[in-house]
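User: I'm preparing a small set of examples for a lab meeting where we compare how different chains pack in three dimensions. I only have the primary sequence for this one, and I'd like the structure in token form so I can line it up with the others. Please keep the answer compact; I'll paste it straight into my notes.
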Amino acid sequence: MHGTGFDRLARELAGGRSRRAVVKTLAGTTAGGLLAALGGRGAGAAGERVRVCHMTGSATNPFVLIEVSADAVPEHRAHGDAIEPDFATNSAHCNGCGKVCDPGQACLNGSCQEACFALGAVCNPTEDQCCQDEEQIACAEDAAPECGGVPRCCRPGDGSCSNDCDCCGLLVCVSGSCDNDPGTD
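Assistant: Understood. Below is the structure token output for the 185-residue chain.
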């Protein structure tokens, strides 16, 4: 719009007001309409803030911790971001965004630590994953087929047991204790 057209429009809208007053009114109306259309989003609207581990797509800095409006959570979740991650227990975000624990580790109190598997749990024989308590517990490679045929945390000879699968290798559970051959004692 050229200068004379604007002047004519301003005079018609002004009804005796100055051009400056008309421009202020138009600017205010436009800004107000824009804020209403956005619902206050991103314009400092008051509301709950949510921590998000935001995926950046960068190879050198793949995650950043940001705080967003609760209204923005669905978009971030759809993007694959972690919403309100628990840095004390989340193995994918242990003690910070994108700090992933190694295989066989768990996030405990914000620190990646060797996982501790219970009696009967499937385990990896090359890693010391089975819990140690008052009795020895080991990861046996030669698990019995009736126990799933996979390596599992088990007790060696003379360890306490409730069934044969609690015992390592070819040991069997006899009267609550792992034994080689129940008939030879």
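A couple of notes for your slides: The first strand starts at residue 49 and ends at 55. The chain has three domains: 3-38, 49-113, 116-185.

User: Perfect, thanks.
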